[in-house]
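ARCHIVE CARD
Drawer: 12
Card no.: 0347
Subject: one protein chain, sequence and derived structure
Cross-reference: see card 0346
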Amino acid sequence: MIAEYAKAIIICVVAILSGIILGNSAVWVFNRIPGKWLCDYGKEPDEELLHSTYQRIKSTPWKYCFSCLYVLAAIKLGFENPAYALIALMTCWILMEMAIADIKYMIVPDQFVILLMVAAVGFVPHHEGGPFEGIWGGLVGFAIMLTIGLLGKLIYKRDSLGGGDIKVFGALGLCMGVKGILCVFVLSVFLSVGHIAYLAARKRIKPGEERPLVPYIAVSAAICLVILHEIGYNIMVYL
């Protein structure tokens, strides 16, 4: 009994420290990444991106908000599976950096996409479908977004998805496998359509206005990684 209490205390302490580090570093790192990461190919960063002291996102209140989210997620996952918790939280951190970049600058740095692909290695022991599950998931994720992008271009005669969105979904598929990436896709559709409908009802969005997609993907992936992984992503069956 004493050993169980000690283990629980250790998990909570480590989870709290990890959550604080992840939450604070999300703000610190984003404010200090090279400005060229946040520019389109062939373009130079403006004065805002080059200024070393400019806060792209404010420390207050965001570092506190992010830290609280990571602490709660770390405690939950820490009690379930500490090894999985480590890689899942790191993946959520990478996705958060991508989402912030997409919201503020409508761009997804390739460097974070590469980090997401590296993180996929940590998910290999946790895939139910074996070591090749991630590869199939990456192919499925890439194919889904590429198909949507091609159909959008065919229908609207312009790019409806950025190349960054396609790369992010493919890299995320490597992490989550086939069921996981399909679950993220379903949730992303519901979240994006619901949010855009809300904005349209409040007249906060203009017809034809472009919206960043990665934030919806990041939130959906976090829900899957932290909550729905317990039920094997069977939310698709329920829906």
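Annotation on reverse: The radius of gyration is 19 Å. Residues 2-238 form one domain.
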